[in-house]
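ARCHIVE RECORD
Type: protein–small molecule complex
Small molecule: iron/sulfur cluster
Source of inputs: curated submission
Record status: active
Notes field left blank by submitter.
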Amino acid sequence: MRKSSQIYQDDERFALAIGNVKFRNNFIVASGPTVKWKEQLVLAEESGWAGASLKLAFEPEPYISLPPRYRWFGKEKYHAFTAEKRLTFEQCLKLLEDGRKATRNLVLFANITYVGDKPGVTGWEDMARKAESAGAHAIELNMCCPNMSFNVALSEKTRTAQTGASMGQNATVVSMIVEAVKQAVKIPVFVKITPEGGRIAEVAKACYDKGADCVCSVANRLAIAEFDIENINQGPYRLQDEPTLACFSGPWIKPLALRDVYEIRRKAGKAPFLLGTGGIASARDAIQFIMCGADLIGVCTETMLHGFDFLPKWLKQMQEFMDRHGFKNYREFRDLAVDKITSADKLTLHGGYAEVDLDKCTGCGLCSAVGHCNAITIVDKQSRIDRKKCLACSTCVDVCPTGAIRMVATGVLEKKS
Ligand SMILES: Cc1cc2nc3c(=O)[nH]c(=O)nc-3n(C[C@H](O)[C@H](O)[C@H](O)COP(=O)(O)O)c2cc1C
Ligand code: SF4
Ligand code: SF4
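STRUCTURE (tokenized, with ligand):
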């Protein structure tokens, strides 16, 4: 973990406030292994991050908490793990106190889960009150972690009390906890929810209706990582034997995470705050999340792989983007994609056909192998496309290694309803 080499200058165009909590820009270090120590918080602040959501703390112990075993699959662009160490609640409270003393502007979130059997919602309320007293600027209710009861229930036949992603699918329960915690503390209440169960927008809406100050979407997706087909006893992790259902993050989940943000924004309307997370690895990714409805941007995997000090570069690129388009603040481009994303029955399609530039064609034959196409043959070691048979799908453009094929448009097709 290196010291930040770039000092970030605040830019009012990025600033926002949720309740009485001010964020100097849109970027939050999302809860995970890069928000476990005071020194990480200091580095994050020096690099210009607006906030940090501390590593999940749960109460009471013992619950699943193991030494970390991570794996970054660079080619596939996903990060996966199952073994992970959480904070005890005592460690979380101490980190909040130390973090408040060591930083000035960094917004600190307590990312918490109650897993005990105190009646009703009292366990959640107690945790939130203690976190507030220890200095948390905001609470982030963890209704998202797929690596607790959800993992256990999917991997075994046993059922355990619902926590994290399995509880997070239940709009009634989640929103009831939100409502109770809102009444228990004065600081803003964020709730981080899960797409598992396919009801993320509904759960988000229920949380907003019960007073959530911000919904956060999303955490890891549960999936199965690459494994060795010659030895299925051995999972892909170093110093860990078994294959597992694993928590996926990184660029691989970005398209799904963008959809989740979009769905929530559509369902919840323009007013509420939304924190978008999932696979963000560049300023461009962050801009896409904002265009799909996010106010704040959470980043975890990228900070695990590269530390914190890429943020000034991202902010500069965002400033340049805003200058190019004349945007005075992020709100002016928030939701732009939400308004543009068109339903499948209203698309504008152009008629056309594929055409080969014979000077660029090497006759490799890749285009003629396209399984759903009957229009291409190789004649005299060159591609020939029959326009009458061409459906204009454009797959051949993508498979051609020399860029020899282009689509020719012939006019807008009549829309069918
Ligand atoms: C190793 C690891 C640990 C994580 N721990 C937590 C956690 O304690 N609480 C939480 O809300 N999210 C946790 N997350 C989820 C991240 O905050 C984030 O939502 C998710 O990884 C997607 O973002 P990313 O692609 O930028 O990593 C963790 C992610 C990783 C990779
Ligand atoms: S894939 Fe491209 S280079 Fe190969 S035969 Fe087709 S047009 Fe020619
Ligand atoms: S555009 Fe589609 S249908 Fe037309 S030639 Fe290419 S692959 Fe075949």
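CURATOR ANNOTATION: The mean pLDDT is 93.
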